[in-house]
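@channel sequence for tomorrow's demo:
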Amino acid sequence: MTDQTLPLPDHPQPAHGRVVGTAKGYTPPAGPAPKVRRPRRAPRPAPLLREPLPASPRPPSGEPHEPDRTSTSNESGPRTAGLRPRLAPRITAGIVAALALWAVWATWDTFVVSPVGQRADQLALDGAARGQGVLWELAEPVLGVVSNTFIGLGLAAAVVLALARGRWWLAAQVAILVAGSNLTTQVLKHAVLDRPALLDVPRADINTLPSGHTTVAASIAAGLLIAVPRRWRPVVAVAGAVYTGATGVSTLVGQWHRPSDVVAAILVVLAWGAGVCLLSSSSSLDAPQDGRDRGTSGAAGLLLLGAVGTGALAVGALGSVRGDGWGLPLGGDLTAYMGGMLGVVAVTLASFALLLLVRQSTARP
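structure tokens (generated this afternoon):
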């Protein structure tokens, strides 16, 4: 029997690939393994690009740079470290200092060198004897406070206050103000200025201008005004003017000084106060604040208003002593005495008003 190849059984054939058969049957080839689809990863989000903060616009030339008001640092240093005092207020401070020095010389030239001025000054000194017993009971305690110990304690308080705020140069300014004012008064009184003997009175040739007691009181008050924070300066200016005026008037009541001595002392302190403001640095600046100064304009206006009123009365009394104005029926000495007291008050109020305005303007960042 002839060996013939048996036909393959009728099995379903794969759609692709070659059929492999045997005599007993066939084994379909293994097809390609199905591809396992991997789950797609979620696309990574694009990185968020931070927009750069807009740069703060630079102010035009001549205007002060406005620092960041959102800073949480305190007033004592970081907020004023990169700032510089403005030029215009410092020039104003220099002008005020120069005018105050000129006023010291003008006071000496008018009331010490001039015969008419010496007469008015001496009448005021003689007029203090009227009612002195009652007034002296009030004046003596005021003058009793003034001493070397008072100078040391007052200077230490002002310096410590400045150092507590982290203001090293401000502390130096206070020390320069107090020491310079008192040293200037002593040098002017004993070495620079003289008093010609134009009147026939005891000790007519001994110069007493400026007043040392008044200089001490005014310099301590001015030092505190320079050292305290901005919001407290109006209060300190008014209180300092009251204390300085009371000290100056007390020297008149006790017949320790003539009115011109007291006026010159206050002007010396004003010159030094404005002078140290001229030398302001970043340590002397205040921290930036929102809004306008509260109380500064009110306090300065009150002081200036009082200065104008008392000054007008003082000028009228001086004119009466010279014979070309009104006078009191009690005599020229009392008129001169009252006019001298009013003149002292007027100069004191005006000086502390100017010092307040100068300090606030030079300390503004």
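heads up for whoever presents: The chain has one domain: 87-287+299-363.
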